[in-house]
UniProtKB/TrEMBL annotation:
Family listed: Belongs to the 1-acyl-sn-glycerol-3-phosphate acyltransferase family.
This protein's name: Phospholipid/glycerol acyltransferase domain-containing protein
Transmembrane stretches, start-end: 45-69
Domain of life according to the entry: Eukaryota
Alphabetized CDD domains for the sequence: LPLAT_LPCAT1-like
GO CC annotation, single: membrane
Span of domain Phospholipid/glycerol acyltransferase: 113-223
Species, as recorded: Mola mola (Ocean sunfish)
Length: 477
């Protein structure tokens, strides 16, 4: 399934057109009426119950250790019950009048980790508040007014994004808690790692499966007449459209415990994929072999939007397979660019390419090398590889990738890049086969020298109409 159909499903009754949403006429009338009658009342009640929950969560969280679990005293149990009641009342006021639950949640001693999917909306928090399970959350979420206190109450595994080894520390903490034989609360993890629109299950991240302990899959369904928009849309519109529905249906199904085999314990990726297959079968959804990083590429924003993702997604899959994607940092990209500049455009064969990356020659590395073999002679320009790596590493920061490319191509004396080289840079960044820049160069002030500095590119790409026309004229891979 293509990237566009994956993340912009035509099954949705609410369809996005640019930055606007189009609705069937009957639903538009319903939304309009509900917006001036029910919506403000519901919003007020939801806000009230959220504020009401705050002092309970604050009292129970105050002075509590981040690393030890205290015995569940009587007053803490009372607060836990109060919070469950308050949060359920909040969801009721939001239109979730009854929530269908299938199966039974097992205790943490039997399955310390719950894997929930698909992840698509704010309201995936409902099973969390019903169970008071821990979650994995970024540290910044704890500082959100009111909601941050509620998140802290459920003892989340915080991700310290500022730390270089945050992923490793997060996995270690999940593993530590999971191995305490039920001492810590269960952890509910959304292994997709990002939001989709529920049209399929993308690749699961391995974090929940690295401990090699039994997990209980949890599948979420929203069988509404008006499909609830996902977090891929504007966040306020999710809240608005949901609160304007008379009733929001939701189903939570707890599947049987999945106990990993010895092979799965040794191979978390295999464990994750087998659980994904089981959940996809229960949901009657297809498996879509796209990852969290693929989604970031497909939804990239910025001055230079990717026009065709196919080549970049193929490249991203291969560098992830080699482990190159995880280790990519700004500093590493700068170092690669510095070394590439010294080569002054020399072409590299497969052996030289492997030596440049300090990797052995493998089938995957051969495939990556082949992606940039333009002339079929077994030689590539290493700068093309670095531009592609930077693009998939920071898909929404295209101007930084362009700046990096200029450092590799620009003249030492003038800092200029020739038109043919800028075209080659943009072809990789945009995923197009052939691009014509003469129209853009003519839009520059002064004579057309066929060269450009990085400082002038910002002005060019602000000419959206001209740039859009140029991209429509180019040929796609």
């Amino acid at each position: 399934m293509g990237m566009y159909s994956m993340f912009n499903s035509k099954q949705l009754l609410v369809r996005r057109n640019g930055n606007n949403w189009s609705l069937p006429v009957s639903l538009s009338l319903q939304i309009g009426l509900m917006s001036i009658t029910v919506f403000p009342v519901r919003l007020l009640l939801v806000s009230f119950f959220m504020l009401l929950a705050w002092p309970f969560a604050f009292a129970a969280s105050f002075g509590r250790s981040e690393f030890l679990v205290e015995p569940q005293s009587l007053w803490r149990r009372f607060i836990d019950v109060c919070l469950r009641v308050i949060m359920r009342a909040m969801w009721f006021c939001g239109g979730f009048h009854w929530i269908k639950v299938k199966g039974e949640q097992v205790p943490p001693s039997e399955a310390p980790i719950l894997t929930a999917a698909p992840h698509s909306t704010y309201f995936d928090a409902i099973p969390v508040t019903m169970t008071m399970c821990s979650i994995v959350a970024k540290l910044e979420s704890s500082s959100i007014p009111v909601w941050g206190t509620l998140i802290s109450y459920i003892r989340p595994v915080f991700v310290f994004r500022s730390h270089q080894d945050s992923r490793r520390k997060t996995v270690e903490e999940i593993k530590r808690r999971a191995q305490t034989a039920g001492e810590w609360p269960q952890i509910m993890i959304f292994p997709e790692g990002t939001c989709t629109n529920r049209s399929g299950l993308i690749l699961f991240k391995a974090g929940a499966f690295i401990p090699g302990l039994p997990v209980q899959p949890v599948v979420l369904r929203y069988p509404n007449e008006l499909m609830m928009p996902s977090l891929l849309s504007f966040r306020f519109k999710i809240l608005w459209l949901t609160l304007c529905q008379l009733h929001n249906a939701m189903e939570i199904e707890y599947l049987p415990i999945y106990t990993p085999s010895d092979e799965e314990k040794e191979n978390p990726a295999l464990f994750a994929n087998n659980v994904r297959k089981l959940m996809a079968k229960a949901l009657e959804l297809p498996l879509i072999d796209l990852s969290f990083e693929d989604r970031e590429i497909s939804l990239s924003q910025g001055e230079l939007r990717v026009f065709d993702y196919s080549s970049l997604l193929e490249f991203n899959l291969l560098v992830c397979r080699l482990g190159l994607r995880t280790g990519t940092t700004e500093k590493m990209l700068e170092e690669l660019a510095r070394r590439a500049r010294k080569l002054q455009g020399d072409w590299l064969g497969l052996e030289d390419f492997a030596q440049f990356l300090n990797l052995p020659v493998t089938d995957t590395l051969t495939q990556i090398h082949g992606l940039f073999d333009q002339h079929g002679d077994g030689q590539i320009d290493i700068r093309h590889y670095i531009i592609a790596l930077s693009t998939v590493h920071r898909p929404s920061d295209s101007m930084e990738t362009l700046k990096l490319a200029f450092k590799m191509y620009e003249s030492k004396e003038s800092g200029e890049v020739e038109e043919v080289n800028l075209a080659a840079i943009l072809e990789i960044m945009l995923g197009v086969k052939e691009i014509e820049l003469s129209g853009l160069f003519l839009s520059l002030d002064g004579p057309d020298t066929g060269k450009i500095t990085y400082g002038k590119t910002g002005g060019i790409f602000q000419l959206q109409e001209t740039f859009q026309f140029m991209c429509n004229e180019c040929r796609i891979y």
